[in-house]
Structures are given as structure tokens and as C-alpha cells.
User: Which sequence fits this backbone?
């Protein structure tokens, strides 16, 4: 049963301002959220106008709202909270919403398993490698390079050290040298996903998308839970113009890690714009802004979102945004 609070107090106000809002709350897989959902509608000054609890089908209704802008906050157990601008100033008649919730991040308590060559490397090589990691974290790149190279000299097939050295080479724009070390790291330990992720990123930056796909697909066969592999694979697909494949991979990223870096939402928004899926693009932009309200795409998304949202009066949409306005993965 729906419960509404703060009904309009006067008959004249109801005549002027009666705009019913209804809709449904679903997951990103389009499944109904049947319980544990709370929707609060408030004015911009924070005063609550309504609090509702959708039914077992995720459906809700707020029968009477003024013709003004409200803030709608949606919370569901196990999902990230969502905040929407509900603009009722323009248009007439009922407003129907479809609210898509993204799962909250799972709490992983187990530490990552060591790479195969971590256990094979001698203690002296592992100690030097850790010193290299500390130098890298302190942005002492030359010191980090020296330590990684020393660790590799002690154990030539040290996949993690080879990958660390490759990260230094990438920072120095030595992409060919980085790729060579990453190939060696993968040869030494095919099940170490970090090397495959970084090599995929290097190949994507060089527009060698077919090679990138081969490396990343091979990595996924051995590390199917590594969402970073899907992320780079999606990037390769996107830059080849294979938008449906890119969408599929980025949706998998969200399934594996419901709270990935905010830019994953920005990338999905770019895919949906390319495919003409305006509402989905709008939702991903919202998710990005929630995660990084002052992120590097925040201003462009805020400018684009009004053009992506359907008109409440007749369902019409504005002209498509310029492609250059969307960040390219």
C-alpha cells in the first residue's frame, strides 16, 4: 500500500497545482525491487511534501504536487541512494517515472590471492619490490624503476615486478618497452590479471584494438571476476564502433562491482548516447554526478542532461547532443 504525507491544504491550490507523479522502481537489470524502498519528495528548502513506499511491484504514486521543482530521494536496501530533480513547472497532466537503482558495493573482506610468481620469487626480490612500491606511491619514479629492475634482475619471471616496471615506462611514454614487459609478465603468469589489464590499456591507447581484445579475452578466461578486464575490453569495442558489445561489457563491470570508478558510468552514458538510448544515458550521468559531483565530466553532463530528458508534457525529446560533448572512452 502507498502512503503519502503532506497533502495540499487548500482546494484552490489543488486546482492550480495538481500534478500526479507515478512510476516504478527497478534494478539495472530491469527487475522489480519488491520491498525495502522509500521515496521522499521534498521542496528545495528541505520541507518534505511526501514520503511513499512502493508496493510489491515497485509501483508508487504521489497524487498531488505543486507546479514547482522538487528533490526526489530514493533509497532501497542493498542499493545506492538516488537523488533526482523533479521539475513540474512546465507541462500538464500526469508524470510517469521509471527509477533505476544501482546495487551498493559488496564488502569484500578477503585479501587478493598472491600472483603465482609472488610465491616463486625469492624473499630478497620481494623485499626490493615492496621498496619499489613505496617509492612509486611517493611519486619517486626513478627510485621505483631502480627497485623494480633490481627485483627482476634477481628473479626474471617476477610478473608483479615486470608490471610495476611497465607502469613506470607508461608514465615515461615508453609504450613499446611497457608492452614488452607486460607480454613477459603474462607469459610468466597468465593468471595475473593486472598485467593483462595494463597491456590492454596500452594497446587501446595505440589503437591496436584487435590485439587488445585478444589479450583481454585470454585474461578473462583465467580471471573472469576481474572487472578491469571487461572495462578495457569495452573500451576496445567502443573505439571500434561496436557499441552494443561495449555496453554489454560495461554492464558486466557494474554487475561485478556496483561501485566502480565513476568514469564507468560516464563511459556507459557515452554508449547510450551513441545508441540513442537517452533515458539510460541520463541515468548513467546521474550516477556519475552522484559519485563525483565535481568530477571532470560534471559540467558537461549537467549541460547535457536537460536535453536528454523527455518532455513531461508530451514525451517529446530535444535535438540530440553534439557527439563531441560526450567523453570518449
Assistant:
Amino acid at each position: 500500500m502507498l502512503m503519502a504525507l503532506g497533502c495540499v491544504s487548500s482546494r484552490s491550490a489543488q486546482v492550480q497545482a495538481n500534478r500526479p507523479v507515478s512510476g516504478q522502481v527497478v534494478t539495472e537489470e530491469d527487475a522489480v525491487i519488491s520491498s525495502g524502498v522509500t521515496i521522499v519528495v521534498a521542496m528545495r528548502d528541505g520541507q518534505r511534501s511526501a514520503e511513499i513506499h512502493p508496493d510489491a511491484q515497485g509501483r508508487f504514486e504521489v497524487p498531488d504536487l505543486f507546479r514547482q521543482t522538487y528533490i526526489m530521494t530514493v533509497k532501497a536496501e542493498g542499493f545506492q541512494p538516488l537523488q533526482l530533480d523533479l521539475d513540474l513547472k512546465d507541462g500538464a497532466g500526469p508524470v510517469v517515472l521509471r527509477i533505476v537503482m544501482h546495487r551498493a558495493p559488496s564488502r569484500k573482506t578477503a585479501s587478493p590471492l598472491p600472483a603465482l610468481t609472488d610465491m616463486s620469487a625469492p624473499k630478497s626480490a620481494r623485499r626490493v619490490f615492496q621498496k619499489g612500491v613505496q617509492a612509486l606511491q611517493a611519486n619517486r619514479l626513478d627510485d621505483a624503476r631502480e627497485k623494480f629492475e633490481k627485483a627482476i634482475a634477481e628473479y626474471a619471471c617476477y610478473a608483479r615486478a615486470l608490471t610495476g616496471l611497465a607502469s613506470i615506462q607508461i608514465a615515461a611514454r615508453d609504450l613499446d618497452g611497457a608492452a614488452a614487459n607486460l607480454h613477459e609478465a603474462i607469459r610468466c603468469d597468465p593468471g595475473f590479471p593486472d598485467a593483462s589489464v595494463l597491456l590492454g590499456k596500452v594497446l587501446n591507447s595505440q589503437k591496436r584494438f584487435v590485439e587488445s581484445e585478444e589479450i583481454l579475452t585470454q585474461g578473462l578466461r583465467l580471471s573472469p571476476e576481474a572487472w578491469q578486464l571487461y572495462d578495457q575490453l569495452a573500451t576496445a569495442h567502443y573505439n571500434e564502433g561496436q557499441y552494443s558489445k561495449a555496453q554489454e561489457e560495461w554492464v558486466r563491470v557494474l554487475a561485478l562491482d556496483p561501485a566502480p570508478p565513476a568514469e564507468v558510468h560516464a563511459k556507459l552514458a557515452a554508449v547510450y548516447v551513441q545508441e540513442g538510448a537517452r533515458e539510460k544515458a541520463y541515468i548513467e550521468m546521474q550516477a556519475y554526478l552522484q559519485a563525483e559531483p565535481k568530477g571532470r565530466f560534471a559540467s558537461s553532463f549537467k549541460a547535457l542532461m536537460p536535453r536528454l530528458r523527455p518532455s513531461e508534457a508530451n514525451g517529446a525529446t530535444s535535438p540530440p547532443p553534439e557527439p563531441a560533448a560526450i567523453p570518449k572512452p
The chain is about 50% helix and 15% strand. The two ends are 44 Å apart (CA to CA).
